[in-house]
Amino acid sequence: MLFSEVVAGIELDEQTHGSCEITGVEYDSRRVREGSLFVAMRGGTTDGNKFIRQAMDKGAGGVITDSRESFTNALSRWPHLCIGLMEHGRRALATASANFFGHPEQKLKLTAVTGTNGKTTTTFLVEAMLQAAARKSVLVGTIEVHLAGEVRESPHTTPEARDLLALFTEGVQAGASEAVMEMSSHALDQERVWGMPVDVAIFTNLTQDHLDYHGTMEKYFAAKQRLFAGVGAPPPRVAVINADDEYGHRLEKFALREGAVVATYGMTKGEWRAEEVVLRAGETSFLLKSPAGEILLRTSLTGRVNVLNTLAASAAAYSRGISLEQIAAGVAELPFVPGRFQTVPNDRGVTVAVDYAHTDDALLNLIRLARELAGKDHRVITLFGCGGDRDRTKRPKMGRAAGRGSDLVVLTSDNPRTEDPGIIIEQALRGVEETGTDCIVEADREQAIRRALATAKTGDIVLLAGKGHEKTQVLADRTIPFDDAEVAARVLKEMA
């Protein structure tokens, strides 16, 4: 493919010529091969323009840069090279990748989910409902990538456009007609999803998170709202919005102004509602009431928060032409979502649940669920930590959330990264102390899990919160293997 064909539709500020033969599109110089187009763009932590020389040494066939200085230098050094200059590097990456891969995004109907909590579970539910209707799909999210049934690890919640389009290409080749993905606020703000045509957009909720990046809740909300305006593509055809969330009301008005068909859901409000809710550990049932009629849904997912996630997924799936009967079948067939109230089997009569809850709101919901399941006669023991190099203001809030509903809190580390774990724990401890709840402080997460499980008695519920599906612990100088579920299973076996 010629350079001129790969850059078609990109509004380049300047370019040399377009006759270079391009064999691929890359933004990481380490992946450049002979003939690759290297898109050198400035990112949050690094600047790809620093690696143009490395890309050329590997045989790059062309360069697009978002730096005029880099454009001038490259033109001087390689006068016969195809070089383009564009202010928005990620937009160039998205358009060039779409051209190179043959626009797979136009061959899939995309359902995208945004919000603070519930994105992953909602995408798994939508995928299960599509499968019940015999539709193949591509799923992209925090935990895994699914390609028409094949499961792969997911390096990012929302990949760069080049990698996303490569996945979409594989999905189309495998017979997929649908795509389901999480769209994080970072990805929307950074335009990693530029040009992706979203058919159905879902908003789950908005609570404090990522303020280390966005700065304020209004900027955080504005990033989420971009999904409903379209990022380099038309606005979504359908907007599925949580009517129980205060930001949902604002988003509903915005989506209507953008021309979307709005479907609302909620426990007490909205067109898609749940009645006759029955909650048990590992089992939830409710009567789905909707504009399409009503049907009894049964799921192995636990808790009211998953009732909301199921409502959101149901409204979205129906918007994609899935019947209520197929929705019910899909919900019933999904066994669990990794790291989302994932129970660890044991013979002690203790419910041990691993969950990704890493915000104060998610922690409150998790503990509220555990309290409801434990009843008055048994205790809720909550283990949690706060991530390093992230929003520091939420640490005491998470401490308060843990202390309010728990009988015992075990405060530990959770990916301290470059920060001192002791300082992180101290900041979270202030919130726990405000509640007066007993608290064990143990910075070593494995030892903390051991101590939490050692205190549990028959009927108690132990929550291992914060890491969920994650398989590593990120420290200042290294990353070590660490899986809450595996550690808990091993400790429980030793105790037995």
Automatic annotation (TrEMBL):
Start and end residues of each Mur ligase central domain: 113-317
Binding of meso-2,6-diaminopimelate, residues: R390, D414, N415, P416, R417, G466, E470
InterPro entries, per the entry: Mur-like_cat_sf, Mur_ligase_C, Mur_ligase_C_dom_sf, Mur_ligase_cen, Mur_ligase_N, MurE/MurF_N, UDP-N-AcMur-Glu-dNH2Pim_ligase
Alphabetical UniProt keywords: ATP-binding, Cell cycle, Cell division, Cell shape, Cell wall biogenesis/degradation, Cytoplasm, Ligase, Magnesium, Nucleotide-binding, Peptidoglycan synthesis
Protein residues bound to ATP: G115, T116, N117, G118, K119, T120, T121
GO cellular component labels: cytoplasm
Top-level enzyme category: ligase
Residue ranges occupied by any Mur ligase C-terminal domain in the UniProt entry: 339-468
Cofactor list: Mg(2+)
EC code: 6.3.2.13
Mur ligase N-terminal catalytic domain span: 21-69
Pathway(s) served: Cell wall biogenesis; peptidoglycan biosynthesis
Compartmental location: Cytoplasm
Post-translational modification: Carboxylation is probably crucial for Mg(2+) binding and, consequently, for the gamma-phosphate positioning of ATP.
UniProt modified residues of type N6-carboxylysine: K224
Substrates-to-products reaction catalysed: UDP-N-acetyl-alpha-D-muramoyl-L-alanyl-D-glutamate + meso-2,6-diaminopimelate + ATP = UDP-N-acetyl-alpha-D-muramoyl-L-alanyl-gamma-D-glutamyl-meso-2,6-diaminopimelate + ADP + phosphate + H(+)
Biological processes annotated in GO: cell division; cell wall organization; peptidoglycan biosynthetic process; regulation of cell shape
Motif (Meso-diaminopimelate recognition motif): 414-417
MF (Gene Ontology): ATP binding; magnesium ion binding; UDP-N-acetylmuramoylalanyl-D-glutamate-2,6-diaminopimelate ligase activity
Described purpose of this protein according to its UniProt entry: Catalyzes the addition of meso-diaminopimelic acid to the nucleotide precursor UDP-N-acetylmuramoyl-L-alanyl-D-glutamate (UMAG) in the biosynthesis of bacterial cell-wall peptidoglycan.
NCBIfam families: murE, PRK00139.1-2, PRK00139.1-4
Similarity comment: family membership: Belongs to the MurCDEF family. MurE subfamily.
Identification of the protein by name: UDP-N-acetylmuramoyl-L-alanyl-D-glutamate--2,6-diaminopimelate ligase
Native organism: Terriglobus albidus
Organismal lineage: Bacteria, Pseudomonadati, Acidobacteriota, Terriglobia, Terriglobales
